[in-house]
Design goal:
The structure is a single chain. The protein is of the alpha/beta class. The chain has one domain (4-155): fumarase, CATH 3.20.130. Helices cover 20% and strands 27% of the residues. It has helices at residues 24-35, 78-83, 97-106, 118-122; strands at residues 12-21, 48-50, 88-91, 109-112, 125-132, 141-155. It is globular and about 45 Å long. The two termini are 26 Å apart. The mean pLDDT is 96.
């Protein structure tokens, strides 16, 4: 992928590489770990977090439907994660003023992907590995290897905003 700071709002890309799933409770645990100086379960620097909790995996598949969840639920945790080097987030919906400011300050990117298309999005996932918080079930942190995963830049590193 090109340098994230060079991506512009409304750009459409197909990402291949590693992304990590994490939702509300996983975010809470990540932030708690940072605050007490614990090591995180994955390298946050340059990482991409996908706000997703996949459905149960059907027989013969590697993952169930895995569409984006509403990103605003992670807004209280996002500025701290960006300050620690998080590169990008994938989800759906608008973000808070604080998150927009943090994205610009830390040169991050917020991507959208297709909502309501979890079964389709699962086809871009080539491997899945639970790496943290298995007690959270589908909200555990998973490492996904994706190929040509469709993304749209919603907030870019210069302050561009698809919502306004």
């Amino acid at each position: 992928m090109k340098n994230l700071a060079q991506l512009k709002v409304r750009s459409e890309i197909k990402f291949s590489g590693i992304i990590y799933t994490a939702r509300d409770q996983a975010h809470k645990r990540l932030v708690e770990a940072i605050k007490v100086g614990k090591r995180l379960p994955f390298e946050i620097k340059k990482a991409i977090i996908y706000y997703c909790g996949p459905t149960q995996t059907p027989k013969g598949k590697i993952i169930g439907a895995c569409g984006p969840t509403t990103s605003a639920r992670m807004d209280e945790f996002t500025p701290l994660l960006l300050s620690k080097g998080l590169a990008a987030m994938i989800g759906k919906g608008a973000r808070s003023v604080e998150v927009k400011q943090a994205i610009k300050k830390y040169k991050g990117v917020y991507f959208l992907t297709y909502a309501g298309c979890g079964a389709l999005l699962s086809k871009y996932i080539k491997s899945v590995k639970i790496i943290a918080y298995p007690d959270l079930g589908p909200e555990a942190i998973m490492q996904l290897v994706v190929k040509d995963f469709p993304l749209i830049v919603a907030l870019d590193a210069k302050g561009g905003d698809i919502y306004g």
